[in-house]
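Limitations

Structures in this collection are predictions, not experimental determinations, and the ligand pose is part of the prediction. Treat each record accordingly. The example that follows, with nicotinamide-adenine-dinucleotide as the small molecule, is included so readers can see exactly what is and is not provided: the inputs are given verbatim, and the output is the predicted complex.
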Amino acid sequence: MSTTTLTEVKETSATRINEIFEIQKKHQYAVANTTAKQRIAKLKKFHKAILKYRPEIKEALYKDFRKHPSEVDLTEIYPITSEIKHIKSHLREWMDKQSVGTPLALMGSSSYVHHEPKGVVLIIAPWNFPINLTFAPLISAIAAGNTVMLKPSEMTLNASAVMQKIIDETFDSNEVALVQGGVETSKALLDLPFNHIFFTGSPQIGKIVMGAAAKNLTSVTLELGGKSPTIIDETANAEMAAKRTAWGKFVNNGQICIAPDYIFVHESKKEAFIKAVTKNLKEFYTEDAAKQESYSRIVNKKHFDRIAGLVEDAVERGAKIEFGGNTNSDENYIAPTILSNVPMDSKVMTEEIFGPILPIHSFNNLDEVINIINEREKPLALYIYSKSRKNTTHIMNNTRAGGSCINHSGVHFYNTNLPFGGSNNSGIGKGGGYYGFQAFSNARGVLKQNVPNALELLVPPYNDFKQKLIDLTIKWF
Ligand code: NAD
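Predicted complex:
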């Protein structure tokens, strides 16, 4: 294990990037023609390497933003190991030709869908769950039979260094290669005609990625962010909602794409909810979270200043700090903070928070809340706490979001059977489990003609008899 903390970003040269791309392009058919058994063997080897480096991964994330080792297990290691297990049980079935029906007009033929690899793919990852969000799409890409270039974030260099070791030890660079660097490296990668780009990051950079992809008509999966609301209605159990919200919001220091960004709680439950979130925060992190090892830090000074600025702006505009509010810039520490009376035009309500600040609003009319949410960009997640089926259905039917939990926050991410991703501003396409496999595959529709087909009677030159047959086809088939 290393005792040094990495701080200097090293860009990878465009020459090296092009070299790897060309090698992978040549090797792609060898990788594509691997069987399910061979791909599973690769994933098992990868799984083993992740477990071997688990202590180093924990050490790296502690250096990057003082993330607690148990939280690393829960939010970085487990999602990857469970993804590998899920794929191991299903890959054969996903790779099989999927027979589909054939209409009567095409009698004499059979049809199937064949999932073929897209080819040479690029994965660009963010820093907030650096291991999980680099390796989870990699697992899908390998399962689908692609060669892969990975670019982790330049903000969590210690995590990147461990990932580099894992990838170099586990794969040949002609099938999987990790390149480190920041914007320059990203730009050099985005110049290349990849067959698919899987990008996880902010909507702003997502637009740059999609623009670059458009030049080569490269398909994209964009896993983006935004402001995910929570609605707690008058029938909800406020204590349960508070505990689950406190967990979903403050794990990873709130640096979570699907964190409950802001809360709408029914006026009748507001006081109980704030009291219960406060109680939970004290239980999770004590009165002084700065001294509690379970509470991580903001990733860097730039984000510290941004988040501290959100609180200052809200307070200047009349918001009340219900809990927390302390900061320490030497450590990039921001206490778990609850705000109330927050003006809707304050920065904390217009920008993605991505930190440990929880603005709470109360409401009396559910439709007003739905209108406010719908006036904004579509969120990555929307959480509902309610015992009323009527209210839950009403919210589900009249809002849009990438995903949702009913009576929980964030845990839909852990279900490998569910698609994960956003909609429009919060993302395009889905990842995870079968949806991840699909993202990295082209669904090739194949029709096999077995015996002559009735349509062959309808070739030119057309005449009255053929027209009658065409009329019958349109009417009956
Ligand atoms: P970011 O968009 O700043 O960076 C993501 C990646 O893009 C990094 O690897 C970075 O090097 C690269 N990049 C930065 N500038 C670039 C440029 N000009 N051209 C090309 N590439 C560039 O995001 P971040 O700060 O690392 O992560 C936070 C954001 O990611 C938040 O908005 C969060 O909601 C979102 N996010 C989404 C998900 C999801 O699954 N939907 C998961 C985690 C984070």
